[in-house]
Amino acid sequence: MMIQIPTKAIAFDCEYVGVGIEGKDNMLARISIVNMYGHCIYDKYVKPVEKIIDYRTAISGIRPKPFQKVQLEVHKLLTNRIVVGHSLKNDFKVLNLSHPRKLIRDTANYVPFRKALQIVKTPSLKLLAKKLLGIDIQSGEHDSITDARVAMKLYIMHRNRWENDIHR
Predict the structure, then answer these.
(1) For the chain, percent helix, then strand, then coil, each to nearest 5?
(2) Where's the Exonuclease domain (predicted)?
(3) pLDDT at site 59
(4) 1 lies in some domain
(5) Are 46 and 64 in contact (CB under 8 A)?
(6) Which of 11, 84, 110, 168 has its CA at a distance of 20 to 30 angstroms from the CA of residue 128?
(7) Distances (CA, A) of 137 to 18, 36, 50, 128
(8) Distances from the Cα of 68 to the Cαs of 75, 144, 154, in angstroms?
(9) Rounded CA gap, 126 and 128, in Å?
(10) What CATH code is carried by the domain that includes residue 23?
(11) How far is CA 110 from CA 22, 105, 168, in A?
């Protein structure tokens, strides 16, 4: 098995389960990280620290790891790297992590994507994938590896302009 290494930019996505009253609060259940080449460098299921009220998906074969260990491992992978993803605010929240704003590339907030689609509201990753990459995702269960790969593809396609916009 070849070990995949992190690159200067990495993309991640999280999947959640519902906890709290009526299962309306999000708790991390899975996190996946891919490098710039779309190779998965981290993929872990997490045993939530609260009682799960709503699984939201039919997840099987979960090998949970304690949340604190996953949080530390993810923090180490993200440190000093450009982090790419879609609606990363939610993912950082469930991880209870922060990241320097200058190193975040969030496809949900990238204005040129909205202009290309001629929309005002925040586009879904599914819409961006369909319209800008010509691929269908999320037709059933969400897959955090696929979602991270799609976010990275969008970033790579627009990286030069995106980085130029940031460094102005």
Answers:
(1) 40, 25, 35
(2) 8-164
(3) 34
(4) no
(5) yes
(6) 168
(7) 22, 19, 30, 10
(8) 10, 20, 31
(9) 6
(10) 3.30.420.10
(11) 33, 8, 15
CA–CA separation, 98 and 163 (whole Å): 21
Rg (CA), the chain: 16
Provide the pLDDT for residue 29: 82
**DSSP for 33-71, written as a single string:** EE-TTS-EEEEEEEE-SS-EEE--S---S---EEHHHHH
Residue 146 belongs to what domain range?
Answer: 9-166
Number of structural domains, the chain?
1
Are 16 and 48 within 8 A, CB to CB?
Answer: no
In this prediction the pTM is 0.78
Q: Whole-angstrom Cα distance, residue 155 to residue 161?
A: 10
Residue 108 contacts residue 151 (beta carbons within 8 Å) = no
pLDDT 10s digits, 69-128: 888 999 999 999 999 999 999 889 888 899 999 999 999 999 999 999 998 899 999 999
With respect to residue 3, please indicate whether it lies within any of the assigned structural domains. no
